[in-house]
Design a protein that fits this description.
Blueprint lengths: L8 H14 L1 H4 L8 E6 L2 H19 L2 E6 L3 H9 L7 E4 L1 H9 L26 E13 L11 H5 L8 E4 L5 H8 L12 H11 L3 E5 L4 H7 L5 E5 H9 L4 E3 L5 E9 L6 H11 L2 H11 L14 H4 L11 E2 L2 H4 L3 H13 L1
Parallel strand pairs: 1-2, 1-3, 5-6, 5-7, 9-10
Antiparallel strand pairs: 3-9, 4-7, 4-8, 4-9
Helix pairs in contact: 3-12, 7-8
């Protein structure tokens, strides 16, 4: 006979079972017990897009919270790894950073037993990082002034007499070195190995006409909006978003610089297995297509391009166009630090 006020055996077992199902700790594997990952990313609209199609869905699937870590930087990576006080689990990187960071031992090797990326372009399958998207950089210009006389390739960008106007370039030597050589007439197919002296001579000629050396990527388009520059080096993603907001700005697809957006796990992360699970998640085709739909960057799986929203496909970089340049991180291996220092000193002269 059941005593009034005491729980029945059935209710106790039912409660335990319900608690087991409700509590993620009982059903998640060991790697998912690590509750958070810190990802250092570049911020802006791309970070917001990643939050929507990568970070939050990964949390929903695993229970692991993704926390934004601002300002990825190789020097900061080195400090964290060498001090054995690793704050970032994952870091977003450009091409040149991957090579430098791997050479300095700052990245965990990608665990191929966890991370599946069969079918992606070879460059996206780096030993130490995963290429999650192909981005494009080119020339942006306003459409409500200049009377249609605009620079659409780098030779025209350097032609300050034929196409007058205020120029803006990024405040860094990577990409800028290649842009200078194309501006001096070097075809993309013959650009590597880079003729550094020729590039700096070309920069010397353009320097008086560069009114802004831009650090934040957001300024590559806001300066055009504010009528402070006429032509800048920027990215399709930046212009796409502004056009959607009816801002009078356009972008040239001639002579684009193409690069991969990489992510890798910092050496010594305490959450290595979770970090690898995240890299596997970001390399899924459907995640890359969802990211492309929001950003206009291309997936690193050629067979996934057809799945991108047709309205977005016009913004995807053409990786087969010989007038476009895929940056060569192998050439930058060991050169980025020295050339960055030279470039910074050159800016001060």
């Amino acid at each position: 006979m059941q005593h009034s006020g005491l729980p029945s055996r059935r209710s106790v077992l039912g409660g335990l079972l319900a608690g087991t199902i409700a509590s993620p700790a009982y059903i998640r594997p060991a790697w998912a017990q690590q509750k958070k990952l810190v990802i250092a990313n570049f911020g802006g609209a791309v970070r917001d897009a990643k939050r929507k199609v990568l970070y939050d869905p990964f949390t929903a699937a695993t229970g692991i919270e993704i926390i934004n870590g601002e300002g990825p930087d190789v020097a900061k990576m080195k400090i964290q790894v060498e001090s054995k006080d690793v704050e970032w689990d994952i870091i977003d990187m450009n091409d040149a950073w991957v090579v430098d960071a791997a050479r300095m031992g700052l990245l965990e090797e990608v665990d191929e037993t966890i991370v599946h990326r069969e079918g992606c372009i070879p460059a996206a399958r780096n030993q130490y990082a995963c290429g999650g998207n192909v981005y494009a950089g080119g020339i942006a210009f306003p459409t409500n002034r200049l009377n249609g006389k605009v620079a659409r390739n780098w030779v025209e960008f350097w032609d300050v007499k034929g196409i007058p106007g205020r120029r803006g370039l990024r405040n860094r030597i990577t990409d800028t070195l290649e842009i200078a050589l194309m501006g001096d007439g070097v075809p993309p197919s013959q650009l590597y190995p880079c003729d550094v002296e020729r590039a700096f001579k070309a920069l010397d000629r353009l320097k008086p006409h560069v009114t802004h050396w831009i650090t934040p990527a957001s300024q590559t388009v806001t300066l055009i909006q504010q009528n402070e520059v006429d032509f800048t080096f920027t990215y399709t993603t930046r212009v796409k978003d502004l056009q959607a907001a009816n801002v009078p700005i356009d972008y040239s697809f001639q002579q684009n610089i193409l690069g991969l957006g990489y992510s890798g796990a910092l050496k010594g992360t305490k959450n290595r297995d979770s970090a690898m699970r995240f890299l596997d998640f970001m390399m899924k085709r459907d995640r890359q297509v969802a990211l492309a739909d929001l950003t206009g960057d291309a997936p690193t799986y050629p067979d996934a391009v057809a799945q991108v929203d047709p309205a977005v496909r016009k913004w995807l970089p053409n990786i087969d166009d010989p007038n476009n340049l895929f940056t060569n991180p192998a050439w930058w291996n060991g050169k980025a630090e020295e050339l960055t220092l030279r470039f910074k000193e050159w800016l001060l002269t």
